[in-house]
Amino acid sequence: MMNTVSRSHEAELINAASVLQEQLGRRRREIDEARQLPQDLADQLADHGFYRLVVPEDLGGLGVSPETFCRICEVLAEANGSTAWCVFIGATSQYLFGALPQAQLEEMLKDPNVITSGVFADSGTVCFESRNGAPGYRVNGHWRWGSGCRNAAWISGGVHEVNSDGERIKSDAPLTRVFFKPDEVEIQDNWHVSGLRGSGSSDYIAQNVWVPAARLSGNVEDTPHASRPIYRFPKFALLGCPIGAICLGMATACLQEVIKVSKQKTPQGSRRPLSLRPSLHIELAASETALSAAKSLFYQRIAQAWDHAQLGPASLDDRRGLRTATVHLVNTSINVIDKMYSVMGGTSVYEDSCLQQHFRDVHVASQHMMVGEPVMELAGRVMLDLDTQALGL
User: Fold this and answer.
1) pLDDT of amino acid 4
2) Which has the closest alpha carbon to 280: 218, 343, 216, 335?
3) Does domain 7-98 have CATH number 1.10.540.10?
4) What pLDDT band is residue 271 in, cutting at 50, 70 and 90?
5) Comparing C-alpha atoms, which of 123, 25, 42 is closest to residue 85?
6) DSSP H helical ranges for the chain
7) Could you tell me if 98 and 56 are in contact, meaning their C-beta atoms sit under 8 angstroms apart?
8) Cross-strand partners of 158
9) DSSP tally for the chain: helices H, then strands E
10) Using the 8-state DSSP alphabet, how is residue 352 labeled?
């Protein structure tokens, strides 16, 4: 099934993200101090359809390409990394809509712009238990990094099935995800962090929560939807590429900030504006070139893998190329932001400077496991034919 979303519609979505930039910049401190997105802002993002970007159209989504998904995250991150992060997590938490029973999907889509949050990590267990003749599961778990959970109407978590003795049940079509209503979990007030403060990435806990069986999903690969391009596109890449795009957006904003502010700043002890220093000229040119090169490789590999997904499952080379390009872009973005933060001196540390915020945010974003050093280690093993499956890519 070919992707049918028009390029013009995708361009409209990217433009909608651009229009939000002024508001996001203006509310940057408010978002940080709240340690979550203000609900009115989350609702605006939902109204634009940003939480359902990667869900196929006939399943209630917008069905955009991974490239468009990433470009929307990039544009939002230029103004505020936390907002982009919540869109990334919210949208990918709807990835498994294709594996939900139809009745449950319809229940969740009573609001077509439903806000969701979720953690893919297998941090919970489910045990079959009927109640009043209705099949269901007793759920226990503790999920960390629950970005956007305080804004969501549905919160999901990765799980595995166990028997009454707590032993793992093996299955050819395992249950992998449970969807909660917010009042069914305990959201911890523990998101006190250095960066991405506004993402509201609190822990949440389920203790002996019973849910109907329809609230659990398996893998999309085990459903009739498996042949759709979005589900052929490498899953871990879809969970990692937006991080690269978010870091790219923040690095781009830092370059733009230095170009603007250096013309206005005269360093202490100098008679000329910072913009006239040769050392700054070199740093700007080198940083822009490095970032542009990493960006080009990143989007080139996404486009190539998306083309391949129209025809069949992703190859190992697609998976390796996507993950390494993403990690490279994250690392390049960090280097650019660090340099821009440094060259602006004391100006960078004030709260009214986006440099300090992007500096903090990018270093938190880089701690996500999807862009960690082990990705490069595994990719290197693939290149040396030491691993011919690399299921973690």
Assistant:
1) 57
2) 343
3) yes
4) confident
5) 42
6) 7-26, 28-34, 39-47, 66-79, 81-93, 102-108, 229-232, 235-261, 278-309, 316-343, 354-365, 373-383
7) yes
8) 122, 177
9) 12, 7
10) T
Per the structure block, which two tokens stand in for 242? 């937006």
**Among 342, 197, 249, residue whose Cα is nearest residue 21:** 249
Q: What is the CATH number of domain 233-383?
A: 1.20.140.10
- Both structure tokens of 134: 């209705």
385: alpha, beta or left? (left if phi > 0; alpha if psi -120 to 50): left
Nearest C-alpha neighbor of 116 from the set 100, 92, 81: 92
Q: Which fold would CATH assign to domain 115-220?
A: Butyryl-CoA Dehydrogenase, subunit A; domain 2 (2.40.110)
pLDDT tens-digit map of 314-360: 999 999 999 999 999 999 999 999 999 999 999 999 999 999 999 99
Hey, where are the domains in the chain? Answer: 7-98, 115-220, 233-383
Count CB neighbours of 352 within 10 A. Answer: 9
- CA 196, CA 199: separation in Å to the nearest integer? 6
Distance from chain centroid for Cα 76:
12
